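Batch job 17 of 40 flagged for manual review because the log was empty.
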Amino acid sequence: MAGKTKSTYAHLRFRTKTSLFFAALLLFLSYPAVFAQAPKCASLFATTVNQDQLIYPVEYALVMKRVEAGHSKVILMPSWRLLLPAIRTKLQKLGIESDAVFIRLFSAKRIEIALETGSDRNDQSHVFDVPGYDSSREERASLGITDDKVTYGVTLDLSAAEVSTIPFSENDNVISHMLAPFQDPPAFSFQAIAVYIPSSLQRLSSVEYAFKEKPKDALLFVLVNEETVDWKWKKKYSDTLPPHFLLN
């Protein structure tokens, strides 16, 4: 009986070792195929995980909530570091497909005017006419462009990973100073950004544009740095702010 038991145990050990051997052999043979899929897996992970969401989870969640449920023309921003995801998400919510937007940076003192007319500028605003950089008054007149249609800003490339602009020409290096507010730390700060679809404007030079239609019809929305407006203004233009944002 004892001999029979030993024989059974020996047989089981043999079967176990054999199974482990073939399992190891199968794993070895499939090794190239498994690791050949690794780049695809990594790529899939990279496309499904938002890096901004990982780095700034609380701020990202707040901004996305405001984009989804806030005032239709105003989005309050804790900072400009989530500028790209905020614009992309808002465009998607509006049902607009575009890989670029025109943005106009301006002072918080002009926000009400921008929301009322579609632009922070009016017929009293200065037109620079800098030789070599801007169009001349004669050139604009030949195109039927009056001074009240002129505005200044940059075309933002939404397909880029970081804030970058689409140049006017190969030698266009004038617009680099327009990106200063988005540097870390920022060189200077604008309080508000008006966002438009590029097709609603005619580009005249590096940073000079002219509206093809009424600015109010062209304006998509305005991003506002919440640190530059008072709590009454925040309460008026955002119904999604938690109480502690209304008390500072």
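Reviewer: the log was empty due to a logging misconfiguration, but the result itself is present. Residues 3 and 9 are 10 Å apart (CA to CA). Unflagging and moving on to job 18.
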